[in-house]
Design brief:
With 200 residues, this protein is α/β, with parallel strands linked by helices. The chain has eight helices and four strands. A four-stranded parallel β-sheet has the order 2-1-3-4, sandwiched between helices.
């Protein structure tokens, strides 16, 4: 008996998948057949997507809310679509785009129209991914210009750091003891040392 599956993807762990999940529930996709990845759509190396593809068999139906939930790589989306519908014989329904429902358009004209729509939406999905990356980069540059720091905060060094360095240079303080007193790593020590004395 043919089975119904649903695939949900969000780009990161802090994004909400509720809208996609609600769409699957309205279509009565069994909960155990809904697969979710919280990962970028740049490729298809996603653990739950791969599990889903391994489970699906010829004649099964896959629901996705929109084509960009499948992926955001123009060539890879089309390649994956052809693999699923051609080689595996799976039907796909893109909920937000009724023209992309392989159950409805089996004739040559229908396939031609679906291919055009798929190409356009795949292009839009990848373009949006590029735009998101550009906006993120611009945002980071603007934030840095305002003095916002990214990443982990730098480890604080003690007020007597210069004295400890002097002792270390005079072989009065072993490196391991210096690092312990400063509570920093060796890499951080040498970075701070270069900041103190660029000639180092």
């Amino acid at each position: 008996m043919n089975k119904i599956y649903g695939y949900i993807r969000v780009s990161s762990v802090d994004q909400n998948e509720a809208r996609q999940l609600a769409a699957m529930q309205r279509l009565q996709v069994p909960e155990k057949h809904i697969y979710l990845d919280k990962q970028s759509g740049k490729d298809f190396e996603r653990p739950n997507y791969q599990n889903l593809i391994g489970k699906m068999q010829q004649g099964d139906l896959l629901y996705i809310l929109s084509i960009d939930r499948l992926g955001r790589n123009y060539k890879e989306i089309q390649k994956q679509w052809r693999y699923l519908t051609g080689e595996k014989g799976i039907d796909i329904c893109v909920i937000d785009m009724p023209l992309l429902d392989t159950r409805q358009y089996k004739d040559l004209l229908g396939t031609f129209i679906s291919d055009i729509v798929l190409q356009i939406l795949s292009f839009v999905a990848e373009s949006e991914r590029d735009n998101i990356r550009k906006r993120q980069a611009q945002g980071i540059l603007a934030a840095k210009a305002k003095g916002v720091r990214f990443g982990r905060p730098e480890a604080a060094i003690p007020k007597n750091f210069t004295n400890l360095v002097t002792q270390w240079r005079q072989n009065q303080l072993p490196m391991k003891d210096l690092l312990k007193k400063c509570q920093i790593s060796r890499a951080t020590f040498y970075r701070r040392l270069r900041e103190l004395d660029p000639a180092e």
